[in-house]
């Protein structure tokens, strides 16, 4: 039985063709549990040692609803200040545009303010990929595009992306931008498969957007299934994982990565061991039969 193509060593991000690893590490929970800069350094090294060079964070990460936000970025900034050599080894993505308690603000003024604030917290001059975190319905896409183009022209941002945007919202923003968008970040997992059939990934391939999948383990439901559908998907992943000597979570990452759109799953674990384990997905090989078996389990019905 023929195998799907092997995964490339790197993916290409944006017009600048920035090489990124086919799997990313996310820092949503980096600033939780009193984690120190020393602890954070160890996690960054765990990712790099595993070949994961693409790091994703956001200004809202670490926000507990009472203090100002930016904790995860600030902690990563401490790491980069302590080991300046790390900067050249990573491709750094962050997000902005959520402004509690509004909740969203993508006015020209606020986007500029948010990017500058992220740069200060990260202690950097340039962000590799800056993404609009969630769409602001009250912001005209031309206004958003103007602020983003200004940030690129000023050298503060190299590439631009969006997160949680609908397909029409992506098209509208892209229409006004002076450069192509580089990435889109939707929720994708073996338990959230809408994008495989609703055109999102087709749009990504047409527009050369790198899809960054947040919550690739279904918010943890793949690891602790509760519903019949979750259990069925987990069973198919377990079968394939056993055949290839990996864990269920690794198989879930590998399933996403096998799609021709070049999906990059964002590993959310803050455990050095789990981060290193995730990289095993790079060596998985899939047959069409196995890949579709997971999709059928996720659909809960046969393909037409």
Automatic annotation (TrEMBL):
Q: Which residues form the NADP-dependent oxidoreductase domain?
A: 22-291
Q: Which PANTHER family match?
A: NADH-SPECIFIC METHYLGLYOXAL REDUCTASE-RELATED, OXIDOREDUCTASE YDHF
Q: Which SUPFAM superfamilies match?
A: NAD(P)-linked oxidoreductase
Q: What InterPro entries does the database record attribute to this sequence? A: AKR, AKR_Detox_Biosynth, Aldo/ket_reductase_CS, NAD(P)_OxRdtase_dom_sf, NADP_OxRdtase_dom
Write the protein's name.
Answer: Aldo/keto reductase
Among the GO molecular function terms of this UniProt record, one is:
oxidoreductase activity
Query: What GO CC annotations are associated with the protein?
Result: cytosol
